[in-house]
Amino acid sequence: MALIPLSLFLGGSVTAIPVVTGIAEGVSHQKKQNEEAANESRMIKFNILISCDSKDELAEEVDNGIAVLRHDKVWIVPREDRDGKPFPVPPIPNMQPPLHAFAGFYIQYPDDDRVPPERGLVSTISDDPPMLNWIYVDKSTYELRYGNRTASIEHIVGEWDWTEDEMRVMLEGWEGFVAVDESSAMSEEEWEQTPWGKEGLRWAIYYDRDDNGLKGRRGKRNVFEIVLHRRLQSKEDQLKQLEEAERKMQVKSRGDLKTQFTAPAAERERASRK
Ligand SMILES: *[C@@H]1O[C@H](CO)[C@@H](O)[C@H](O)[C@H]1NC(C)=O
Ligand SMILES: *[C@@H]1O[C@H](CO)[C@@H](O)[C@H](O)[C@H]1NC(C)=O
């Protein structure tokens, strides 16, 4: 089966993502950027599976995990396989809204002030309405977060990449990711008062930018090195999703909404009445 055309995947929004950059840059650079931006392999959606080599007992909680998005942060929860597909196992029953696994791809971050432009990473944050956000690293805490362009632009938004074998995720040319136990610096009671503690979320993904185990940033929290594996969506699933998206996506290309896809109001209304 042929790869999914980029324009299809984005519901015809290609023009909404600026590919043309400053005139100061050379033509060959521009050409490379355009090719990169149009590279369908970069647009194949993937989930992120976590592994952790540490022998520490606690590390078992993150080994065999999957990345999920919640409370503006990227968390690790255990995963289970259903029909060969990975699904997050919710730490507590009946989470509302349900846990949303990272499901994303690479695309150039639209910012004229970043020269050369940086390859960003987006993920859906909900399926209905279908919405995409940027995955970025908070510049002061180094935690992974998600948000729209306004929320992300002053932080570390790239350059996201894959390893040479395309199997794992990299940022700024290396795999400096760690899992941080957000519960480990507070009492159980304090923990249960936090929005994530209420939902049993403990392990957040951070980027150890200075390669020192988050020295000066981790406090008393437990930190483990982890690896972010790309689990590509099957061609079948990509197609199914495309058809669904085509059916209900309407791209708003105004200003900050450039990276957000929302369902037409009428459709949303119909869905909520169901
Ligand atoms: C697109 O990405 C694939 C996989 O890395 C690579 O083999 C191919 O050369 C790229 N194509 C372009 C036009 O950059
Ligand atoms: C972008 O996200 C911020 C919060 O991070 C929010 O206040 C703002 O309304 C969002 N902008 C749009 C256009 O959705």
From TrEMBL:
Source domain of life: Eukaryota
Taxonomic placement: Eukaryota, Fungi, Dikarya, Ascomycota, Pezizomycotina
Protein name (Swiss-Prot/TrEMBL): Uncharacterized protein
Signal peptide per UniProt: 1-16
Compositional bias (Basic and acidic residues): 246-257
Organism: Westerdykella ornata
Chain intervals for the UniProt region annotation (Disordered): 246-274
Keywords in alphabetical order: Signal
